[in-house]
Amino acid sequence: MDKFSSFFLSKLIKTVKDSGLLTWGDRILIAVSGGVDSTVLLYSLYELRHYFGITLACASFDHKIRPSSHEDILFVSGLCKKFSLPFYTEQADARDYAKKLKLNLEESARILRYNFLMKSAIDFGAEKIATAHHLDDFAENFIMRLTVGGGGSAIAGIPVKNNIIIRPLIRHAKQEIINFARGNSIRFKEDYTNYDKKIFRNFIRLNIIPQLKKHNKSFLKTVYNTAEILRSDDEFINAAAKDLFDKSSKLFFSKTAGNEPLLSQIVFNRKDLINVHRSLLYRLLKISILSLCQSRDIVDKSKFLKKPIVSYSNFETFVELVKSEKPNIYFNIKHLISVRREYDNIFIEHFSLNNKLAFKSFNFNFTAAFGKEIKYKYKLNELDKTKYKDISNIEIKELGRSFFIKQLKERETLRIKAGILKLKKNVSVPANVAYFDFEKLKFPVTIRAFEEGDRFIPLGAGGHKKVKSYFIDKKVPMKARKILPIILFKDEIAWVSFNSISETIKITEFTKYAGIMFIK
Length: 520
Description:
Radius of gyration: 32 Å
Largest sheet: 6 strands, mixed
Low-confidence stretches: 298-304, 353-363, 367-371
């Protein structure tokens, strides 16, 4: 081995030791495409396998992007035969996958590749997956993040270790890798798509970085050192944010089809956040989103789908949501995550869960999009007099629910009266149910959404009150106000559903027959 090769491997050894990438006895799966970077990684780790005390296997994925991609697989297979290493391979059409899931090609290929690597690692019993990311990749990623935006951790670039993924070549420049290959007569495959400047990453690598290197010969090292400082600062602030998250968040779980617990909603009390520094609020929002994403598979159960990036506008909106005097604010992140405030409660949840409104003790599901006002109106001109049916109902299609109303028999009326008038034990009435004096029923019965100017006499009140003012006093969420059914007997509001009936239809000692109406 020549002097340069010895220096190259010594640098790799230092990276491994400094970052604790390998442990004696580890089984390592190396991701090899056949290109110069991954081929050199394979040769290097094979050369050092006894030094590190590791057992190797190789994995190569065919994305079917290039007509000649199968030749790369054959090439890598030949290397594995040469070194007597286990070889894993699989293929899938990344373009079809991208169209199916509406992803860009790079993201589609990444998901397919890493899912394959995970499966292969499990089969081989690997503790680590080694990839060939290097210093130029690091700089490309740094510039890309600066261009599209992101917080300190995003700009800090590719980590040397991320869970079971390790990157032993992260401190090696591309030219060092090429020189090592040439010095040791290592053959590799060229991927012509790496020279397509229409791809943003390639444009940065081929056009931007060479110009920056002219102004600073140590540009790659400068970027890496700067990123390491950013990463160190970010880790410190993240630790403080995680501590705040653990102390102030309430986590709510649902069950998957396999009866596994699934984090579905994170709730904060605004009072715990109102005086928190902006930098901590940013991390708190990010930790919440990542916690939800790690718990729930958004696309095709992929562990390696990129998570929603918290943009600067998202962060500013979140700060406003926390600091504002307005009691009801909401925003969405990439149609995946919903963040909303209802008075002193702040909810962070998956967007799909916005179709479920937990109101009082009753879970009210509705089909409309979050925050949109729904207009509907249905009328019942008479009760169903069918011989075998004692209840009338109307489907509220916009909500995916139905309204029911019926007259109670005399014996049931006596029980309800006794409970309500406290002659016996109080009747427990669910929020979606209302009992009333049936003789106060007037037709038509109208079921509609809230309208500006609505007024009624809440049960126990001395006079009329605007429904809007009633909602505010009772802290009814803005989300609920727009969709809760309002029930009218003729032209007067009889019931603001899930809240209060009107004083005018209440059951009294003079009630002969009680009625019941409910929504389910």
